[in-house]
Design a protein that fits this description.
The protein has about 240 residues and is of the alpha+beta class. The chain has helices at about 20-30, 70-85, 105-115, 120-130, 145-155, 180-185, and strands at about 1-10, 35-45, 60-65, 90-95, 135-140, 160-170, 175, 190, 205, 210-215, 220-225, 235. It folds into two domains: about 1-160, Alpha-Beta Plaits; about 165-235, no CATH class. It starts with a strand and ends in a 10-residue tail after the last strand.
């Protein structure tokens, strides 16, 4: 069975980021044969002085496959309670992934969380109205992380755009690719320009010399291409890094 697993508000200024914690949690789950995760998508939520957050107010969601959902849910809850940072307010959402499910009520909540202040009570109300396909739980502090946890899972289920955790690094032995070769080597489903418009394969080459980020757009792993000063297509460089929290 497939699920979207999202956590939020698990860190403080000195701890590892929420994305790293989710990655380590799923690695531990795999080592225990509780399932395996895919890639993590970061969702940016609303920034406001009345919303407590560490630095970015983002939630992290991974696709996860398991044949033992009850055991995994118990493991994930215990993991957050033991490993979330001091002073954090961790929340966990486990949302069933199925093409037969209408996610629109939850997706509406997720969109609201990117644009306005929503409450913990509203998060629980949305989850309860959705029914048995979602688990929403808090694991320390005020539990306000349930807001971002539900929002992130809902946005992922609704194929909303986000940023995939981690960077792509150019190989040492190869730097020029066709569209097809780049897509196959790095698991890219589509290419877009800086306006997020689809770039068709017109036979141009891609020169890859600087680290870049993968994006999640319309439910597809996406690479953004730009032109350098010489008019050559390159993956948009990702310079510098701040901790994803």
């Amino acid at each position: 069975m497939k699920y979207f697993v999202c956590i939020d508000d698990t860190d403080n200024a000195d701890s590892i980021g929420t994305g790293q914690l989710l990655e380590e949690m799923c690695f531990e789950a795999k080592s225990r044969r509780l399932g395996k995760g895919g890639f993590i998508v970061r969702y940016q939520l609303f920034i406001h002085d009345d919303i407590p957050y560490t630095s970015h107010n983002s939630s992290m969601c991974i696709d996860f496959e398991t044949d033992a959902p009850e055991e995994f849910a118990a493991f994930a809850a215990d993991y957050l309670e033991k490993n979330s940072a001091e002073g954090s307010d961790p929340g966990l959402c486990i949302l069933k992934d199925s093409p037969e499910i209408d996610y629109s009520p939850l997706f509406d909540f997720g969109i609201r969380a990117t644009k306005e202040i929503v409450t913990k009570e509203e998060a629980y109300a949305a989850a309860n109205a959705f029914g048995d396909g979602v688990r929403l739980s808090e694991h320390g502090g005020t539990g306000l992380g349930v807001i971002g946890a539900l929002a992130g899972a809902a946005l992922r289920a609704g194929r909303a755009g986000g940023r995939i955790k981690g960077k792509l690094f150019p190989p040492e032995d190869e730097n020029v690719f066709t569209f097809k070769a780049f897509a196959e080597k790095f698991g890219i489903g589509q290419f877009v320009d800086e306006d997020e418009k689809i770039l068709p394969d017109t036979g141009e080459k891609i020169e890859f010399f600087f680290p870049t980020k993968k994006l999640y757009i319309d439910g597809k792993v996406t690479a953004m291409l730009v032109r350098n000063e010489n008019g050559v297509l390159i993956p948009k460089p990702k310079k510098g890094k701040k901790k994803d929290v």
